[in-house]
Write a structure and sequence with these properties.
This protein is mainly alpha-helical. 80% of the residues lie in helices and 4% in strands. It starts with a helix and ends with a helix.
Length: 113
C-alpha cells in the first residue's frame, strides 16, 4: 500500500464521518434543519468513494438512523432556543457510531483495493 492509498483511505473515513455527524447535528437543531442538505452532498460523495457494497449499505443505514435519531432529539430535547444538556449528551452518544462506520469503511476498502 502506497502513501497515496493511505491518504485516500483516510479521506474516505473523514467524508463518511462528517456526513454522519452533520445529519445528526443539523437535524437536532430546528433552526438548522435546512442545512442538513449539505450532509446529503457529503453522503453522495461518501457513497461514490466507498467501493464495497456492504460498506455502502452500512453507511446508508447509519445515515438514515442517525438522521432520525438527531431529529427525535431535536423534537424532544430542544427548549428555550437551545438543546438541553440531556439532548447534547444523547447526541454525543451517536459519535461512536459515526467513528465506527468511518473506520470500517477505511479498513475494508483498503483490503478491497
Amino acid at each position: 500500500m502506497t502513501v497515496i492509498d493511505e491518504y485516500q483511505n483516510s479521506g474516505k473515513a473523514v467524508v463518511t464521518f462528517a456526513a454522519l455527524l452533520q445529519v445528526a447535528l443539523f437535524l437536532a437543531h430546528p433552526g438548522y434543519r435546512l442545512l442538513a442538505l449539505i450532509s446529503v452532498l457529503l453522503a453522495a460523495i461518501a457513497l461514490r468513494v466507498l467501493k464495497k457494497r456492504s460498506n455502502k449499505r452500512l453507511f446508508v443505514v447509519c445515515y438514515v438512523a442517525l438522521g432520525v435519531y438527531g431529529f427525535l432529539i431535536g423534537q424532544f430535547f430542544y427548549g428555550t432556543n437551545r438543546l438541553t444538556d440531556t439532548g447534547a449528551t444523547m447526541l454525543l452518544a451517536g459519535v461512536p457510531v459515526a467513528i465506527f462506520v468511518g473506520l470500517r469503511a477505511m479498513a475494508a476498502d483498503s483490503d478491497a483495493a
